[in-house]
Design goal:
single chain, alpha+beta, six-stranded mixed sheet, five-stranded mixed sheet, 20% strand
Length: 309
Amino acid sequence: MKMKWAFFSLIIICLFTLTGCEPLMVLDPKGPQAETQANVIWLSIATMAFIVIVVFALLIYVVTKYRASKQSEDYEPPHIEGNPIVESIIVGIPVIIIIFLSIVTVKSTYDVEATPKGYEDQKPLTIYASSSDWKWHFSYPEENIETVNYLYIPTDRALEFKLYSYGPITSFWIPQLGGQKYAMSDMVTTLHLAASVPGEYMGRNANFSGKGFAENTFQVKAMPQKEFDKWVEEVKTSAEPLTEEKFNELLEPGHLGQLTFSGTHLTFLPAPEGEYGGHHHGSTDSHEHDHDEHAQQDSHEKTNEHHHH
């Protein structure tokens, strides 16, 4: 009896506690990419809940129907061979479920890796997001400004993040706008996002990268395009220029507040992409460069062979 009341008390406490919790950020999307991922999560939860309910219902039915009963000591149950229909069901249904979830996962993965739907015809805002111990540097090459530990973005516009790191591998993540993606020191990865609702969101490094990992966060503020353009002009006229010496100081391990600069570090320390990038990650430019390099090499070999003859 005591165990029964303790169990019910625990359920009541959990219900009261959960009613005061804010919704999970990944289930409170503010952009098309995050909405796609949230829909997949809900679909997965519904599928798993259906399976659990069916399995427990069958368990209760079997335990109730085939429970032990008073039989004579010489009773022998009938010999039953395997049932092909039952075996087909218990094997076929899990296979169908896996195929269904696989199709949903692959399709949604392609969707979130591409430019958000509805934004294909507009030019995206390109932002270089680089991490260091334990900071985030956001470079706006077209606007020629740079921020540290905070990110301003326009709403209703495609965002193209170029991710890399000046230290260990980190993971760029704004839960309400989309999924996380790794930032590495010798290559650039691309993440497509968009914000459809103005507001302030939390961003962070989702990959453990040392003792300062817990505070490796940044603030994201989404605003209409006009407000964003006004902020850019204010930064250009009022922020101090970012020098190479200052940027090297920023790369030193430690935590900093929010900083703003005119100019970007890309002018004197480009991102690891293009001709000198360690990995091009499927870049067509890199293949063209390799093709040109091989063509030049073949040309030199033919010239040398001609002189030799």
